[in-house]
Amino acid sequence: MTKRVAIIGAGPSGLSQLHAFQSAANKGINIPHIVCYEKQSAWGGLWNYTWRTGVDEHGNNCHGSMYKNLWSNGPKEGLEYADYTFEQHFKKAIPSYLPRPVLLDYINGRAEKAGIGKYIRFNTNVRDVRYNVVKAKFTVTARDCLKDKEFVEDYDHVIVASGHFSMPNVPYYDGFEHFSGRILHAHDFRDAREFEGQDILIVGSSYSAEDIGSQCWKYGSKTVTISYRNNPIGYDWPPNFSELPTLLFVKDGKAYFKNGQSKKIDAIILCTGYKHYFSFLPDDLRLKTENRLATSDLYKGTVFNPNSAMFYLGMQDQWYTFNMFDAQAWYVRDIILGKIVVPDERLRVLDIAARQKAEERLEDSLAGIFYQGAYVSELINETDCPRFEIGMTNRAFIEYVGHKKEGIMTFRDQCFKSAITKRLAPMHHTRWTEAMDVSLESYLAK
Ligand SMILES: Cc1cc2nc3c(=O)[nH]c(=O)nc-3n(C[C@H](O)[C@H](O)[C@H](O)COP(=O)(O)OP(=O)(O)OC[C@H]3O[C@@H](n4cnc5c(N)ncnc54)[C@H](O)[C@@H]3O)c2cc1C
Ligand SMILES: NC(=O)c1ccc[n+]([C@@H]2O[C@H](COP(=O)([O-])OP(=O)(O)OC[C@H]3O[C@@H](n4cnc5c(N)ncnc54)[C@H](OP(=O)(O)O)[C@@H]3O)[C@@H](O)[C@H]2O)c1
């Protein structure tokens, strides 16, 4: 009997899984019956911009966390698909940093070329998954939100590819309830122009903080103040940018900080990260992990240890993204196809513990690049996943971190060599600080 596999989510991770199965089918291998459930009306996951916040058009949690004028925060050479290069897609060499619509176009191109849309049920929200030990089957309950109809179907395997940067972590600070300006989480940030001319307070000191702060600066906020909990970001910020320690409370339109300073503010943007959140999963199937490189409970970062018929993709903290999702997807595919044997639970536990210990021994965040590169390489070497030069990609990430230290507002003007074509990307026609129009047309012009 043909196995049945459910994939939850058609973002970059879920699409990688479909590519992996399709590439096996193209080689004449019998693949399982596959259904990919996607609650949005299109694939691409977070890369689908939505103006909505809160709930989507069907009343489900709005998935989108991206904003209108977002650019990739790493060079495209760090995530390029080894079997579908940027040059192949755009029919010309393009710069290293891309606005969101350009990256989405690339994702679309690969998916369309492979013809994997046939596996996806759009506008279909997975509401529940249960495992029946006797039948050794998962029962997936999903709602087709357009037809307003519920489906209940059984599967041999479930692959969760629902992402982990969508459910905001929202802390409370004294005085929030009396503040009359906007308080929002990065998840709901859509357009920096909303904050033009305003004094903005950003809470948090990681990627969202630095990028949303930079966006607000670029689109005309009067001042940007970043409040860090542990360490400042420490870049050489423009003059109207500052970093202050922990926020204590907010009162009468002013924010008060741990070092005794205070500052008038108009709006507060909480860039305080996200939670791994799976409302559709019961306790026994739900992954519980920190946002880290070596996740808890996932053997080789993919196989759910308490139930090895279930898999998770893309649940790690991410240096590597699209190319890591491919490596994971090919690995999971080969387990399902019976080409790779998963060891027993005792060995899986040892593997997970060893990976976490190795991560804890890393000297700094830069070492994390090599750690994740080695992980991607390990998975790729076990399958026929398309290969790329991981040493080159590691070096690109290291250089990119250096570029950010040299100039947080200029690092996106740098060019990198592709780890696949080995060609150097051209300069963009406009510097990032002046490139206000993020459309595909504007980007590809000239
Ligand atoms: C603001 C922001 C900017 C980022 N920028 C970059 C960047 O520049 N470069 C980079 O490489 N990475 C970036 N990332 C990281 C991002 O996580 C990955 O690029 C990528 O989108 C992860 O893909 P994914 O498929 O794992 O998850 P997602 O992209 O989140 O996709 C998950 C999919 O699952 C669907 N889904 C969720 N729940 C259900 C359900 N119950 N039923 C059906 N479908 C469901 C969602 O609708 C979505 O389509 C960024 C993340 C954020 C938040
Ligand atoms: N342009 C882009 O491409 C772009 C833009 C934004 C985000 N992203 C991506 O989005 C992902 C998530 O990044 P993120 O920055 O949102 O999350 P993150 O990296 O998990 O960082 C969360 C931040 O919130 C802080 N924090 C958590 N709880 C807090 C609290 N109670 N009070 C104060 N601070 C608190 C943390 O502080 P500590 O450090 O003190 O723990 C940390 O600085 C990353 O993969 C990133 O690459 C990309």
Explain the overall architecture.
The structure is a single chain. The chain has 446 residues and is of the alpha/beta class. The chain has 2 domains: 4-166 and 274-395, FAD/NAD(P)-binding domain, CATH 3.50.50.60; 176-270, 3-Layer(bba) Sandwich (FAD/NAD(P)-binding domain), CATH 3.50.50. It is built from 9 helices and 20 strands. A 5-stranded parallel beta sheet has the order 3-2-1-7-20, covered by helices on one side. It has a 5-stranded parallel beta sheet with strand order 9-16-10-11-12, with helices on one face. It has a 3-stranded antiparallel beta sheet with strand order 4-5-6, with no helix packed on it. α5 packs parallel to α7 (365-380). The protein is globular, with a radius of gyration of 22 Å. The N and C termini lie far apart (55 Å). The mean pLDDT is 97.
* Strand order across the largest sheet: 3-2-1-7-20
CATH class of the largest domain equals Alpha Beta
> What overall form do the CA principal axes indicate?
globular
The tally of beta strands, per DSSP, is 20
Q: How much helix is in the residues?
A: 25-40%
Fold-level CATH name of the largest domain: FAD/NAD(P)-binding domain
Main pleated sheet: 5 strands, parallel
Radius of gyration, whole Å: 22 Å
The span between the termini is 55 Å
Low-confidence stretches: none
Can you tell me the CATH architecture of the largest domain? 3-Layer(bba) Sandwich
Bound molecules: flavin-adenine dinucleotide, NADP nicotinamide-adenine-dinucleotide phosphate
User: Secondary-structure element sequence?
Assistant: EHEHHEEEEEEEEHEEEEEEEEEEHHHHH
Please, how many helices? 9
Strand % is 15-25%
Q: Determine the structural class based on helices, strands and strand pairing.
A: alpha/beta
Rounded mean pLDDT is 97
